[in-house]
Amino acid sequence: MHVVFVYKTTTMPGTYIPSDYLSVAVIIIFAALIGLGAIAAGLLVRPRRPYARKLMPYESGNPPVGEPRYRFSVKFYIVAMLFVVFDVEAVFLYPWAVAYDKLGIFGFVEMMLFIFILLIGYIYVWKKGAFNWE
Amino acid sequence: MTLPQLFFTYFAISMTILSVLVVTRRNPVHSVLWMLVLFIHIAALYLFLNAEFLAAVQIIVYAGARLVLFVFVIMLLNLKKEKTEKKYQDQWPVGAGISLLMIIFFVLIMGKITELPALGKYSIEAIQSEGSLMTIGKVLYTEYILPFEIASVILLVAIIGAVVLAKKRIE
Amino acid sequence: MSLSEILWVLIKTVLVVSVFLLHVMYVQYFERKVIGHMQGRMGPMRVGWHGLLQPIADSIKLFFKEDIIPSSADKPIFYIAPIIGVVAGVSTLAVIPLWSGFSIADLNVGILYILALSALASFSVILGGWASNSKYSFLGGLRSSAQVISYEIAMGLSLVGVMMMSGSANLSDIVNAQKGGWFIVPQFIAFVVFMIAVFAETNRVPFDLPEAETELVSGFATEYSGMRWALFFMAEYAGMFVMSGLAVVCFFGGWSGPAFLPGVVWFLLKVYSFIFLFFWVRATLPRYRYDQLMGLGWKLFIPLALANIILTGLIKLL
Fold first, then answer.
1. What ipTM score was computed for the predicted complex, to two decimals?
2. What is the residue extent of each domain of chain C?
């Protein structure tokens, strides 16, 4: 069998194969196989002697007390939401950084404006005490 | 069926199944896990559109940031209570009806589309010659400068909104 | 793409990953030796000459260990969490250029690929900790997510400066852009921010809060045993190698060096110096508290990384 993908000079939408990513797919599948294989291979040789006390969650030798998953400070949620926002900001910076040489002073000024507007939000959050933990 | 069509069929079917799995799981953490798989599929589909940057953003922002936020929110829930309560609200038959109508609508118009829009100057070859980041950078920060700056204002609103809402909840 | 090319991709990937996994075993040996000597001990000595066969003995031992799954655990997620870690950890290796023109996948968005997969890797720790349904594990998972939301942005922003200098996110291009001088000099601030963020990203001392064996038993991995436990640590060491590789590529000229040694040797020498740094720090520094860690990330490193971007922009304009 000989598989050949012939490209025309302009590839039409819907006919494109990202062949660069074949190796990415291969490494992901291979890594998953290693992970699964490592666990599966031991199935034959490892002991399996479960009993109720062994399967209890570890709590320094005592029987577990109360719920393990409890609620925690709402501060975490503010920070998590800010994380999403600043992650989006960072995403805007990547193509800008790569194209920076082509954009020149105009690109610099517009990104300064972008960062400045977000900086207002950042300072507001700081002043409101979202980064302080008591 | 050509190879790209085969891939598209796989992604279309599996993404539909994954979406259904996300909304039907009783355990919200299982929903998150299926959503993670769904996002990876979406990213892979972007690759087939030669949108490498969008694929990376899909994982970084959606899987890496938004899902972490979801996990946080789920940790706030009382899972035991969540599991015994009703899974859907009473309006679900209406929602199902609307979805069915939408499906019929799309099936009807799908056959009517015969002509594809003309190709622009950003062909796959043009983008690959200089890389998708460079192309996006050159277009986004010159032609689409206004939407880009407006995005910063929207993000500012999101920052302030998050703090205001959370502060109210503490009090 | 012809069949022979596809075959070449397969062979290349399988070979590199296999060598890499063998190496991961020996990095652990290296760590025990280094930390042993720093504390005036010998480290492993019994199995083989100077304990050289210790990693092999350890792997065989782990292979025969019982796979204990707590009865209150969320089974599907408990099963899958370590595998997410290994897949995300090992597949980041794909874009690292080992020598001139050789990487498993030479992607245009190389840096973003690594950032994306390391974001996925954190899910393995968070979900593993959650699924165990034990207090220590839950706290470990929670701390890991706190670490993610404090450090990932600083890490991404610190690499923006490198992308500005090289005009590309492709790792080979970045190395080639450093012909006139390594980026460590113009991007020193970025390097410091990046390295500290990497310590948090890979859960290493002083930011090993999710594991924190002195306070949380073993953190997220408390309930894991045998091979599943080993997979978590395989992922951690893979992450350490890839992040060291990224630091070498972005700031220390990748495979470049005087010609008397081949490129791959230079690359590995530099990577091992970074891995040594990880061990050195582990033997030296105490652990951070999580509120200090989050404060440091948000109040210091994000502004510092942004300042570095502005500074780089200004210098490039002049």
1. 0.85
2. 1-64, 72-317
Nearest to B56 among C109, C122, C126 (CB): C109
- Percent helix, strand, coil in chain A, to 5, is 55, 0, 45
Domain assignment of residue B105, yes or no: no
- Kindly list the residues from chain A whose CB atom is less than 8 angstroms away from the CB atom of residue C91: 24, 27-28, 31
Q: Between residues 47 and 106 of chain C, which touch chain B (CB distance below 8 Å)?
A: 74, 76-77, 80
Classify residue A77: in a domain, yes or no. yes
As averages over each run of 10 residues, the pLDDT of chain C (318 residues) reads: 82 87 86 88 83 86 84 85 90 87 84 90 87 84 84 90 88 86 86 90 82 76 83 87 90 83 86 90 85 85 90 86
Quote the CA–CA distance of A11 and C153 in Å, as a whole number: 36
| Residue B2 domain flag | yes
For chain A, what is the domain count? 1
Q: Are the CB atoms for B77 and B27 separated by under 8 Å?
A: no
* CATH number where A90 lies: 1.20.58.1610
Average pLDDT over residues B58-78: 83
From B30, B59, B71, residue closest to C145, measured CB to CB: B71
Contact C95, C107 (CB under 8 A): yes
User: C295 and A133 in contact by Cβ < 8 A?
Assistant: yes
Cβ neighbours, 10 Å, residue B37:
15
Confidence of residue B13 (pLDDT cuts 50, 70, 90): very high
Pair of tokens at residue C264: 């791959």
Domain membership of residue A89 (yes or no) is yes
pTM: 0.88
Confirm or reject contact between B141 and chain A (CB < 8 A): yes
CB-nearest to A58 from C93, C104, C217 is C217
Residue B1 is assigned to a structural domain of this protein: yes
Query: Does B56 contact C112 at a Cβ distance shorter than 8 Å?
Result: yes
**Domain total of chain B:** 1
